């Protein structure tokens, strides 16, 4: 499958006054299986407490045949878009639920090898692209992740940015800075922590001029978003990782109002990430 080409070039407009801008509330969450999460109450609590305009779910583990039934469990004011794995069934998968109807939705990043597992979905809005991804864990195929996926997603974001700014969110399966894990020592060969993964991610942030919204607002705060279930009592012991991000094009940096996680909303081994952004 050939990569989709985006022809139009993005010409930045004069920044509007804050009074002329609208506030977008975005929530991104690796739910580790959407159907099971819906029975635990965490998603309902997130919607009630945050009132997000846009919900991004990662690792939904849905099949296409599940979508109609699952959609009935969400408020009707959301427009709902799903990208499921068409390789391994009941695996991976991402979704965007949005009050604001997008101009178009792109499923995948344009290459069959990268798209068969339903790891990316993009919604184009008037002022930005929203890219939601569940990035492959390098533990299963380090070479694929670092030599193919990382380069492909970088190229895809660069193409989007020729048109308009980008918000990239999801479980990105990488530790960017040492502060993003409880203890970096002795873990340099672990998935998400290898020099290749971290180096690729840093390069993508620089080349694509992306801002890590949480780290920008909270430079010295750990803000972990993931606690491994294999590490019993990890959250109580403070042994977390920050694998989940909401990144934005640098031109949107001044528009950030809030960026935070919700460790009090339970049900997954990941915490929801929240961004309030003026657009």
Automatic annotation (TrEMBL):
Belongs to the DNA repair enzymes AP/ExoA family. The record marks 173 as: Transition state stabilizer. One of its GO terms (biological process) is base-excision repair. The record marks 270 as: Interaction with DNA substrate. GO terms for cellular component: nucleus. Residues 27-270 form the Endonuclease/exonuclease/phosphatase domain. The record marks 244 as: Important for catalytic activity. Pfam families: Exo_endo_phos (PF03372). GO terms for molecular function: DNA-(apurinic or apyrimidinic site) endonuclease activity; double-stranded DNA 3'-5' DNA exonuclease activity; metal ion binding; phosphoric diester hydrolase activity. Its cofactor is Mg(2+); Mn(2+). This is Endonuclease/exonuclease/phosphatase domain-containing protein. NCBIfam families: exoDNase_III, xth. Probably binds two magnesium or manganese ions per subunit. Keywords: DNA damage, DNA repair, Hydrolase, Magnesium, Manganese, Metal-binding. The active site is at 134, 171, 270 (proton acceptor). Mg(2+) binds at residues 30, 59, 171, 173, 269-270. The keyword Zinc does not apply.
């Amino acid at each position: 499958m050939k990569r989709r080409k985006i022809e139009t070039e993005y010409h930045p407009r004069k920044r509007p006054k804050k009074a002329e801008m609208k506030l977008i509330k975005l929530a991104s969450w690796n739910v580790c299986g959407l159907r099971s999460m819906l029975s635990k109450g965490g998603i309902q609590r997130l919607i009630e407490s945050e009132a997000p305009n846009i919900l991004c779910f990662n690792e939904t583990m849905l099949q296409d045949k599940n979508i109609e039934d699952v959609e009935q469990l969400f408020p009707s004011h959301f427009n709902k878009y799903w990208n499921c794995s068409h390789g391994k069934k009941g695996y991976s998968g991402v979704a965007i639920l949005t009050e604001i109807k997008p101009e178009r939705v792109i499923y995948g990043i344009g290459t069959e090898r990268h798209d068969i597992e339903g790891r990316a979905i993009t919604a184009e809005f008037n002022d930005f692209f929203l890219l939601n991804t569940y990035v492959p864990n390098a533990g299963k195929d380090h070479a694929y992740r670092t030599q193919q996926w990382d380069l492909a997603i970088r190229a895809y974001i660069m193409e989007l940015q020729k048109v308009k700014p980008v918000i990239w969110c999801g479980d990105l399966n990488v530790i960017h800075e040492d502060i993003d894990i409880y203890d970096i020592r002795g873990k340099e060969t672990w998935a998400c922590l290898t020099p290749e993964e971290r180096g690729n991610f840093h390069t993508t942030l620089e080349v694509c001029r992306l801002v890590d919204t949480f780290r920008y607002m909270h430079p010295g705060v750990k803000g972990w978003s993931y606690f491994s279930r294999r590490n019993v009592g990890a959250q109580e012991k403070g042994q977390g990782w920050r694998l989940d991000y909401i990144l934005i094009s640098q031109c949107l940096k001044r528009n950030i109002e809030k960026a935070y996680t919700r460790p009090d909303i339970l049900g997954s081994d990941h915490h929801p990430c929240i961004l309030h952004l003026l657009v």
